[in-house]
Structure formats: C-alpha cells, structure tokens
Write a structure and sequence with these properties.
By secondary structure, this protein is of the alpha+beta class. It contains 10 helices and 13 strands. The protein has one domain: (Glycosyl)asparaginase (Glutamine Phosphoribosylpyrophosphate, subunit 1, domain 1, 4-Layer Sandwich), CATH 3.60.20.30. It is about 30% helix and about 20% strand. The strands form 2 sheets. It has an 8-stranded mixed sheet with strand order 4-3-2-6-5-1-11-12. Strand 2 and strand 3 form a beta hairpin. The longest helix is centred in the last third of the chain and has 15 residues. The protein starts with 7 loop residues before the first helix and ends with a strand. It binds glycine.
Length: about 375
Amino acid sequence: MTNPPLSRRQLLGSAALVGAAAFLPADLAAQDSVPSTAPAGDGFVLVTSANGLEAAKVARQALIQGKDPLDAAIAGVNVVELDPDDVTVGYGGIPNEEGVVELDAAVMDGRTMRAGAVAALTGVKTPSKVARLVMDQTDRVFLVGAGARRFATAHGFPDENLLTEKTRKIWLHWKNRLSDLDDWIEAARDADDPDVKRFLEKYGREYFRPQGTIHMSVRSAKGDLVGVTTTSGLFFKIPGRVGDSPVIGAGLYSENGVGSAGSTGRGEANLLTCGSHTVVEYLRDGLTPEEACLRALKRIAEKTHLVPRHRDEKGRPKFNVNFYCVDAAGRAAGAALWSGSKYVVGDAGGVRTLESAWLYRRDA
Ligand code: GLY
C-alpha cells in the first residue's frame, strides 16, 4: 500500500509519535527545517557526506569521463579511505578498544540489485574495494572478520598496519585514562600531544563516542543508481562490533527507478530501523528525497533508544544520524536528526557543500 506524498509540514506534524511520546518533544510538529534539497538535473548527480568533498571531486571527474557510476563512487571514497587524516574511515581510522583498526564497507548496484559487504576487516586500507569484489566475485553478499581477511588476501590485498602514529597515540591516551582501577596510568604529557589535543578538541565533547563514515550515492546520466558506504566505525569499539555501514538496507540501499540512500552517525539507531531502505521506500511512496530522509529520521527518533540514557531532558535523542539520498529524477538531499550537519552534492555544474535539513535545532 502506498501513501500519498506529504508536505514537510504534514511530515513533521503527522501523528506518528505514538509509543514514543514520553521521549519526543511535544512541539515537534512546530519545528521546521532549512530547505536543503539540491535541484534535479538531467545529467549525473552524486551526494555524499560532509567529509566527502575531495571524494566528490574525484567521483565527479570519473563521471564526466563516462566511467561506470559504481567505479566512480568507489574511486571517490577511496580518497578518504587512504587519507590518514580522516580518523573515521579506512587507513588511520580510530581503532577498536584493543588498538586494532577494524573496517566495514558495502556497495550496492541498483541496476542489478546486487550488493557486497565486509565487516571487521583488518589490514586493508580500502575495504570498499573488497566489498565490490564480494559482489562481483562471489555468490554471497557479506563476509566478516577472519573470512573477509582471507578473501582479501586471496585477491591480493597485503595485510597492512592501518594504525598511524597519530591514532596509536590517541588510542593510548584513551586507554590510559579509561579507569583508575586498571594497570594503565595516564601520563600528564599524553594530553599535551598536539595530535591528541586536536582529536579531543574535535571529538572530545560528544556525548556518545563518535562514529564517522563516508557514504556516496550516485545517479548516473543514464539514471542508474548505486551507493557505497565505508567506515572504521565507532571509536574504541568492542572488537567485532559492526554498525550500520556495511549492512544492506541500513547503511545504504540503491534501487534503479526509485533512489539510493546511505547514512552516517550512530549506527545502532539506524540498524534498528533499516534506515536507508526506509528512505528508499518513502521515495517509492512519492516523497521527495528531503522528506524521505526526514521521515526516516523521525522514525529513528520515535522508535529507537527509548531509554533515558539516550535522551536529553526534553526527550530528544542525544545522538545524531544523517541520511543522504538521490532519487531517480536526480534530486539530492541530506538530512540529520540535529541541525548543523552538512552534505556534499556534485553534478555537471561542480561540487558544493550544503546545509542538511534537520528535525531538532541544536541550540533550542
Ligand atoms: N555509522 C557508522 C557506525 O556506526 O559504525
């Protein structure tokens, strides 16, 4: 059964708050969000997360040269996977609690409805390439841990150290100050290290440990829809923890004729609602990309983490989730639970960073 398209006011004002009323602000319907939907175009359109500006430039060039859209998207995110300064993705990602970098990635091809994914993969700087091989070179969708590693080795990926000197120091600082009850002692000089200081300035005040990621969805000039998501996941995670990024339907979903969507942010909240699939289903129902993203976010706000430790004094989520989406017509949007997020759009006219739509204003 399909629903008629909703205007933003109807969307935000719909009565779907039942069941989560204790945690949602009574005035959610009165909130509004800044417009963010990028205009539709006849040519290719890509949408990616705010850390994907350089990735968008690379993917855009590949698309201008007529390359396959999934190859273009993977080439784009490879830039960020290989960048040791992005501590949320690939090489130089923040490790798990034992100091080991475990990476998650997935690709989906809306032309064939095939997908490939890897999780808790070690020693490969570009897990998106391994995810692509799972899609192309196996009859399976998802490989994890030691099996994913052996698959990567079989395909010629060396086992490399993904921990940089910077992330080793950041991890050691976290480990040393974790508890007064263990054998690890915080040295005063640790926190003075410039790399540690910069890390704490950028991420230290977050309530939940952050989990950066890059997602890119592409709608090619022919109208084909593909996506890729790649991440090092939650900082200092329990070994083996997997978030939403490599889970098809949660971290990304692409279907020709409908749209492609992906996510960044608190993976557990998105896992519990299969968020990217939800966004694409809302597109199928006739919502615009921005409406579809906001409605999926609203479902997260209503349905997940309904316990006080995940909610502020007004009942709002303390975490953030972002969606990125492009529909079959080439309209792109980004939206987040909280104001202040950005996303990047690329098309024949160039690459630009835009303000994401949102459900909750940060300073309200
Ligand atoms: N969204 C990325 C993660 O939670 O791992």
